[in-house]
Amino acid sequence: MENQNDNTEMIKNLTNILEGLDNSQEQLEKNAFDVINSSDTSLNLVKESIGSVEEILEMIDNLNKIVSETSGRINELKELSGKIEEFAAVISNISNKTNILSLNASIEAARAGEHGRGFAVVASEVRNLAAQSAKSSKEITDTIAQVQTSVSETVDAMTNVYDNAVAQKHKADSVGQVLHKVVDAAYAANEVARNIENEIAYQREITDEARGAIGLK
Predict the structure, then answer these.
(1) The organism sits in which domain of life (predicted)?
(2) Is the pLDDT score of 49 beyond 60?
C-alpha cells in the first residue's frame, strides 16, 4: 500500500514536472517564433536599405562620371581660350609695329612734300587701322581674361562637387558595409532561433513519450 502511495506521489510529481516543461516549451516556442518573425522583418528592412544604398552609390558614380567629363571639356575650353589670347597678343604686336611703320611713313611723306601727299593719306589710314586692330585686340584679351576667370571658377566648383560626391560615396560604402554586417547578424540570429525551435520540438517529443510512459496524454 505504501509502495502504491509512493508511486502515485511520484507520478503526480512527474506529471507536475511534465506540465511545467510543457508550459516552458510553449513559451520558448513562442519566443523562438517571435525571434524568427522579428529576424525576417529586420532582414527584409535591411535588404531594402541595402538596395537604396546601392542605388545611391550608382547615382554618385554617374554624377562623378558627368563631373569628370564636364571638367575635362571645361579644361579644353580653357586651353582654347589661352590659344585665342596668344593670337590676340600676336595681333596686338602686329598693330604696334604697323602703327610705328605708319608713323615713319608719315614722316617720310612730310619730307617728300607735295609728292608724298598721297602716301601720307595712305599712311594715315594704315595708322587708323592699326589703332582699331589694337583696340579690338585689347577687347579680345579682356574678354578672354573674363572667360578664363569664369572657367577657373567653374573648374573649382566642379572639383568641389566631385570631392563631395566622393566623400558621400565613401560614407554610403561604409553604411552598406554596416548593413551587410547587420544582415549577417540577422541571419545568424534567425538560424539560432530555428535551431532552438527544432530543439524544443525534439524535447516535446521526449516529453510526450514520457507522458505516454506513465499513462498521460
Answers:
(1) Bacteria
(2) yes
